[in-house]
Amino acid sequence: MDQSKIRNFCIVAHIDHGKSTLADRIIEQTGLLTSREMQAQILDNMELERERGITIKAQTVRIIYQAKDGNEYIFNLIDTPGHVDFNYEVSRSLAACDGAILVVDAAQGIEAQTLANVYLALDHDLDVFPVINKIDLPSADPERVKNEIEDVIGIEAQDAPLISAKNGIGIGDVLEAIVEKIPAPGGSPDNPLQALIFDSVYDSYKGVIVFCRIKEGRVRKGTKIRMMATGATAEVVEAGYFGAGQFIPCDELTAGMVGYLTASIKNVKDTAVGDTVTDVDNPCAEPLPGYKKVNSMVYCGMYPADGAKYPDLRDALEKLKLNDASLNYEPETSIALGFGFRCGFLGLLHLEIIQERLEREYNLDLVTTAPGVIYRVYKTNGEMIELTNPSNLPDPSEIDYMEEPVVSAEIMVTTEFIGPIMQLCQERRGRYVSTEYIESSRALLKYELPLNEIIYDFFDALKSRSRGYASFDYELKGYEQSKLVKLDILINHDEVDALSFIVHADSAYERGRKMCEKLKDEIPRHLFEIPIQAAVGGKIIARETVKAMRKDVLAKCYGGDITRKKKLLEKQKEGKKRMRQVGNVEIPQSAFMSVLKLDDN
Amino acid sequence: MKNLSIYIHIPFCVRKCLYCDFLSGPACDGEMESYVNLLLREIEKQSIFYGDHRVVSIFLGGGTPSLLPARETERILWQVRNVFSLAEDVEITIECNPGTVTAEKLKNYITYGIDRLSIGLQSTDDGELARIGRIHNYRDFLETYEMARKAGFGNINIDLMAGLPGQGIASYRKTLERVVALSPEHISAYSLILEEGTPLYVNQKSYTFPDEDEDREMYELTGTVLGQAGFHRYEISNYAREGRECRHNKVYWRRGDYVGFGLGASSMIRNVRWKNPDMPSDYAVCLEKPETDGQREAAYSLMRQTAQGIGTKAECAAHIAETETDPAIRMKDEGVWNRAFAEMLRQTGRCGVQSLTVQEQMEEFMFLGLRMMEGVDLGEFRRYFGKSVDEVYGKQIGSFVEQGLLERDDRRIWLTPRGIDVSNTVFAAFLL
Fold first, then answer.
1. Nearest chain A Cα distance for residue B77, angstroms
2. In percent, how much of chain B has pLDDT > 70?
3. Between A51 and A547, where is the model more confident?
4. Which residue of A162, A328, A557, B333 sits 20 to 30 Å from the alpha carbon of B401, by its own alpha carbon?
5. Is B363 within 8 Å of A566 when comparing Cβ atoms?
6. Which CATH code of 3.10.20.310, 1.10.10.920, 1.10.530.10, 1.10.10.10 fits the domain covering B358-428?
């Protein structure tokens, strides 16, 4: 294969700006697929991805393009995840490319994620060219958007193709621009093997399938390979490239190509994203730059609703982990919820996706505790512990001080909403950094925010306070000392471990009060009165009471229709089954998640 | 001979009340006549299954059965007498709404053998009646009541409701006192239930309902006022003078055999429960079916063989006596009989056909039996199921006795006043 006829690229965009649709059109118009074979969005092939309209796992496809210059080109289109939770995966996918198409919505212009992604692409020295999408929208203003791209990002945009991916307008221009504007890959097939892993999936027949970009050298069946960071070694069983929706084996992959390897590897842990693959017999001098171990940012407890399903949950997590190296879990026990797992995620979206997959693909009914971040607890004896489960917080007398993770956040917002958004950030203990005006009507707000203030509902609050116009991106900045306390919830005087969470001292009272109010609505009446209390360090700061059940309504039983009566009783009984017994109080499972929705009203 | 009760559903009313989600609606005379024709057909067809039964009670419910022209009511009861054997002291009740009967119609009822009248009053406050869409006022009721007494009805029930929109303690007390002053034999007092889909449910925001404390007070008032007037509570929401308990209702709670005729009517025979279809067209179809169905004959003969023995009447009687006393034989017997019977019911388009398992029978025995103030009979449980109630429900009973919701002695278990308050919690625990 002529290396000069290869183009490795990706598409970067803000969510909903049409990235996946453009990818579909490119695949369609290169003629490898008939229209009939096209699913609505080929690249997003997980059911969940299609429903949410986002891409979770990076996917990739090789297509053939007959260019106007008469030559046949190989395009490797590498799809990148579109959410801040998966930033590292995005960066590794970008590193596998030589160029990027920047898709910008002709009506909405640049958004926070557009910036984050395009800077990430520029950081990786990719040649980026813009495409203006959705030009057929009545509100489209391509000229304004072009100027915005040039002013804000500083890349040439005057000759950007004007397209409508949805309606197939201007796709030919994009294909030609790929040939012209994206450089052919470098590297030499004769150098020692150096390949970048940008993704991997687990297949029950083939083992781990490693997605890689060959930077230098060559690899084929029988090559003994080593993953340089993890140290794992294996012998290649199959090499190939990515057809649309299928793996197509080939003899060898050489420098500049994008493809996959299988080598009977049993676990994705061994094939970490960002790691470098080399030839055991002819190793490269050093690994490719940029590898890092991905750490979980958000933790929560996951428990099977039915305690007997614990082994099923364990098996399901094991299986998901095969495919998702960024998912962490370890067993834990809660007095209220029984046996379960403390799970670590890249972010809240990642958490929700795993939760949904467990429920949908593995048919598990889950109780999830409030998500939290990793706190650093510095003890008076000089020891430091990383706290992921609030119930493990040492006694206050043993704590010297605590630190919490802080992120640098960028919020893009139209100027009319700057006020409300700044107020929101203030409420969430944000530290103002700067405001940059992108154009007269839009600004980029920079804040430093504690991670635990943004993990559950910050994004929703942001959207509602800006009528959907604000967009948001963040990255971890580091740890800072903070006045944190553990808020405990006592139900009928029993502390419920699964309801405890860590909160800033100043908001403890407010949160405690809201928790009590929420739980009061969640917990059904019992035959006795149930006090619900919030406490910090043993001191009660808020209280509500669930009144005792006094009497049932007496329904008429018409014409001997006993079945109807029995159904009502069964419903009552069924409801009881779905509850957790704490002391002599039955707590509905939803109560454990209610802490998430404190700002609903 | 086994006892049988009969429920006959008359799905007609002048106009639907705003809280009503039962199977009923307005109709013209012609429609009523064709409906009664269907009923007569069903009664005749079904009767062949109950040759060994004696009818102890008949209940014409609705809807508003009193809306039927007298001759239609006559045809129905004529047909029942024609094909069933009735006990000498059979209790025959008809439900009646104020304003739908004349003195003549009531007299006719007496001649047809109807000896019990159940009048739907609900409240004596005209404003409350109007708000829930009743077709009558208090005056209409008084007229109907007086006519009924004059016609010779010596056994009258009055239906009341608490928790109506705009109802206060004072007005509810007035309703109770007025009703007591009329000296009926029986009073049913229920709470209003907001059933999904009813106009009252849909527009609930535009009404003011009594709050929890008021609701509670009304409920307590019911017991006090009726108690002082000489009514005893024999079931969760039913009060009667001595000897005037509704026999038909008690059949439901004691799990006696009953068969329902008409649209959507429920039945239970020997631990098989089923319902007729809710849709008139489906109902008509299920009356057509068996005629051509050999299955029905087969099921019927199988039933006769297993239930009555293959031989003479005497042998058959001996067999039945045996099954009554030996739970093991009863269950084995029912197992065979019920399968055939349930299959036949399904074939003829009946709904929700369910042959109750022994466990379901026990559950019902408890949650239905405990509705009666006398509670459940421990000896009866043992005779019927072949084990003691404590073997099955020892844990639940122990815990409820401890919590003061149940009481027991050597013979019975019953709800305490506190247990009555929260009866659903108690009942739900008896589902295994």
1. 18
2. 91
3. A547
4. A557
5. yes
6. 1.10.10.920
